[in-house]
Amino acid sequence: GVQAPYVLDCVEIQRSFGGIKALDGVTIRVRAGSILGVVGPNGSGKTTLVNVITGFYPPQGGRILFDGQDVTGLRPHRIASLGIARTFQNLALFRGMSVLDNVLLGRHVRLRPGVLSTALYWWWGQGTEVRHRREVEEIIDYLQLEGVRQEPVELLPIGLQKRVELARALAAKPRLLILDEPMAGMNQEEKEYMARFILDAHDELGCTVVLIEHHMDVVMALCEELVVLDHGSVIAEGPPELMRADPKVITAYVAG
Ligand code: ADP
Questions:
Q1: pLDDT confidence of residue 249
Q2: C-alpha of residue 23 to centroid of ligand 1, in Å
C-alpha cells in the first residue's frame, strides 16, 4: 500500500555534554499515524533525543523537520504550539495544584501569551474558556481521572501522576505525542492501564506516538517500529520481532 508521509524527520542529530556525545549523528523518521518505540540501555541518549526534538536542548548539528517545516532550534513553547507534546521521565507536574488545573495548563501551551492573543482572548471571552474547560474535562474522564480531579497531584500514587501527565500532554491536542518512560515506577496493573491509554491516544485521538522505553517487552507489545540507541547512535531499526533477535541489540543490552 501507500506509505504514510513522515510527520517527524530528525536527520544526523548531534548533541554533546562536555566530552560525552549523547547523540552522535542520530537519524530517526516517524511516519504519520505510527507508534515508534525508541529503546536502548541507560545513557544511550533517549531522553536527550526527546529534549532535542522538543527544543529543550538545541541540537549542535543536524536538522529536525515537523510536517516538513524546519523546527531546528525553536524554543520549547514554539514547538509545543506547532503540535508536539511530551511527558517527562521524572514527573514535571505542578505540586500544590489540582489534577484539573495541571491538565488545564496543558491546554494553555497552545495559547501563546502576547498582545494579540490577549486581545483575541478578550474578544472571544467566556465562550472560549468554557470550550477549553469542557474539552479538558473530557480528557480527564477519558483517562478515568474524574474521581481525583480536585486532588493535589502530589498526593496521588505515581501511576496516577503519570496518567495526569499524559492527560496534560493530550490537553494540548498534539499531533505528535512523545512519551519519555511513561511506565517508570509503575506496578503491573498500572502499566497495563497506561498501555491501554497510549493505544487509545493513538487509535481514537489520532496521535502519532514516539514511545521512549527502557523495557523491550513494553515496546514489543505497543510499537510497529523500533529504533535501538546505544552510546548515542542508532544500532538497529525495524519491526520489533526482528529486533529481539538482532545480535547488536542483544549485545548492547547485555553490555549495558
Ligand atoms: P537515556 O535517556 O538513554 O538514559 P540520556 O539521554 O539521559 O540517556 O543520556 C545520554 C548521555 O548524555 C549520558 O551519558 C548522560 O550522562 C549525558 N547527559 C544527558 N543529559 C545531560 C546533561 N544535561 N548534562 C550532562 N550530561 C548529560
A1: 81
A2: 9
Q: Which of 17, 44, 215, 229 for a ligand 1 pocket mutation test, highest count of atoms within 8 Å of Cβ?
A: 17
22 C-alpha to ligand 1 centroid (Å): 6
Domains in the chain with CATH codes? 6-95+158-255 (3.40.50.300)
Q: Which atom of ligand 1 is nearest to the CA of 89?
A: 2
Q: Whole-angstrom Cα distance, residue 99 to residue 95?
A: 10
pLDDT for residue 117: 52
Chunked in runs of 10, what are the mean pLDDT values of the chain (256 residues)?
Answer: 84 96 98 95 95 96 96 93 90 86 81 52 59 88 95 93 94 95 90 93 95 85 93 93 79 69
> Residue 45 CA: which ligand 1 atom is closest?
6
Query: Given this model, what pLDDT does residue 253 score?
Result: 74
What distance in angstroms lies between residue 117's CA and the mean position of ligand 1's atoms? 37
Report residues whose beta carbon is within 6 angstroms of any ligand 1 atom: 17, 20, 22, 40, 42-48
